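In the design runs reported in the main text, the only information available to the sequence generator was the tokenized backbone. The following block is the verbatim input for one such run; it is reproduced so that readers can re-run the procedure and compare outputs position by position.
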């Protein structure tokens, strides 16, 4: 299933998309705010296998490639996964060439709209590195509020939540 927003289209990662996935998770500048450093190939492949398993979930849940409508260029990822009975985690990110161009907001807006179509989802959660100021501003601009701070995989993380208005 392919979904579209103004400048992008989204397609779930499939088994043939390993290289796009690896280009994201092995990029030092991208992973600085996710895991603290680029993943080695084996660790990225393990994450990819988990993403493929999650992508088998029925409906629009999972990990998506974000590509430009204009030329199919891979620019990043979008994520919507269930984390409880009525809570979904939403995620987004771009490769460095596309930072600062509004794609983070576009991806977030798209997956918020997707979440609104699921009657079970009443709240969204975004998990952000405390030093990723740009991402925190994007979440706050869409009504997310910082509710807690925890360690995730031995790294600090800020948890932002937003009630889903349907």
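Verbatim output:
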């Amino acid at each position: 299933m392919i979904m579209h927003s103004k400048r992008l289209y989204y397609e779930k990662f499939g088994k043939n998309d390993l290289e796009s996935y690896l280009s994201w998770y092995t990029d030092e500048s991208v992973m600085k705010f996710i895991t603290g450093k680029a993943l080695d190939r084996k660790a990225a492949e393990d994450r990819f296998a988990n993403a493929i398993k999650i992508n088998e979930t029925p409906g629009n849940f999972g990990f998506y490639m974000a590509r430009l409508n204009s030329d199919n260029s891979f620019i990043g990822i979008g994520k919507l996964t269930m984390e409880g009975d009525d809570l979904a985690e939403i995620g987004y990110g771009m490769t460095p060439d596309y930072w600062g161009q509004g794609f983070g907001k576009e991806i977030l807006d798209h997956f918020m709209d997707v979440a609104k179509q699921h009657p079970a989802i009443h709240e969204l959660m975004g998990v952000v590195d405390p030093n990723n100021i740009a991402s925190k501003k994007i979440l706050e601009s869409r009504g997310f509020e910082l509710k807690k701070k925890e360690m995730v995989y031995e790294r600090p993380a800020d948890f932002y939540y937003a009630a889903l208005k349907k």
